[in-house]
Specification:
By secondary structure, this protein is an alpha/beta fold. The protein is 36% helix and 19% strand. The chain has two domains: 90 residues; 127 residues, no CATH class.
Amino acid sequence: MKQSTIRRWGPWLALVLLFAIATSLLSWWQFSRRAERVERIDQVIQNYDLKPVPYSDIDWVINPDGSSDQEWTPVEVTGTYLPELATVVRNRPLNGQPGFLQLVPLRLPSGELLIIERGWLFASSELVTPDSNPLPTVGEHSLTLRLRVSEPDLNREDVPGQIASIDLPRLAERFAESGEVIEEHYGRIVTEQPSYQDAPFPMPKPTLNEGNHLSYAIQWIIFGVMAFAAFFWALRNDRRIRLEEAGLLEPKQQKRTQAVIDAEYEDLNQ
């Protein structure tokens, strides 16, 4: 390649390389997000429909990334609700409807408090509180739960009776005077005895759809390839034009499309 060609096209090649690197990183990011999503789906498939086991039989282990291989495992537990400590998790839409999640601590025979997610509540017309918040009665209850890991702290301001996420360490601080809160997991309710006619809406099974991460990853790869294809096409076209100008190559004949024929006809009849 001639020195003059390198000077003209070098910056464009560098730009294409930078674009290809960016699309490769974005593609890798989408592949990583898909892998995480597939892992969560596999965990739901593996644990969600298992036969419930006694809560005391669970040897709960937290992985370094904060997940647990036992998440979604059904367990059976007995304890006493503390409805006076009920809290709602705000900004939890369901099926396109704004709403909240209801959390009620359950005092276990050991004295520890297990946070129970009892279900979903419709938002009021003002969207800042639930439309209704039916609570369980005080007394012993037998529950079937699916265990979940703590959600991250969103660093939002506290609102009386509300919380931004199911952040168990923060809930442990909030309920410290009432007992020691279990911070490794909480329970999403499946059934409770005694049951209540007026109760939060049960949360549905998590979706098993892995989303569009794979298609997005492939699209970013295609964009990178297209950038190189466009660069080499432009370089080849520029070389052809310069050879034609220098008389070293016969000019490329224009295709006789209908538009060209119509233009010639108009020129002849002027």
